[in-house]
Amino acid sequence: MEASPLIWVGFLAFFVVALVVGVRLLVLAHKTRRLPEFCIGVGVLGIGPVGFGAQVAAMQVPADSPGLARGVVVLAFVAVAAGVCCKLVFNWRVYHPERRSFIGLVALAVVAYVVMFVAQGRLGFPVVAAFDWAYHLRMFLQISALLWGSAEALHYWGMMRRRVRIGLADPVVANRFLLWGIGAFAAGFGSLVGTVAQ
Fold first, then answer.
1. Among 124, 135, 167, 186, which is least packed, fewest CB within 10 Å?
2. Are 66 and 16 in contact (CB under 8 A)?
3. Would you say the pTM of this structure is higher than 0.85?
4. Can you say how many angstroms the Cα of residue 3 is from the centroid of all Cα atoms in its chain?
């Protein structure tokens, strides 16, 4: 069955927007020299245009170039792993900087990605994902990082909204928490829908 052209319109819109946002965040990180801006920039680029984009590109590589396809799959895997781990660091440093125990959560994700990388390497990094334990763990980590970030942003939006009412917070900043929460939820929910559909 041939894919609808709307799929490519949607993918292109997602790719361009995520690329622009991710690059702008990294430019901001270069100016501020701060970890949150860097982490979320890598998170947006790694999970989005580089990681997902490379996965889509790998499936378009001609069958007579298996080495190139595998190389693109490796790039996609590393990009998504870096993106998810940076997203976890962002969630920790922005929303719970006082809780050092969250370092363990990030370390666990890094170890899980290393184990999955080795497992995928033994399989030769197949272009079409096998729906095995590594695939499910990979998607669980990605969806969890995105939905956790959404929940935290929406929680802060609720707190900020109450402060705006009594003049103790900037309404623009409160609105940015809402927008970030909606965006992170859309990315996490979209990943979940894609996983279930596959």
1. 167
2. no
3. yes
4. 25
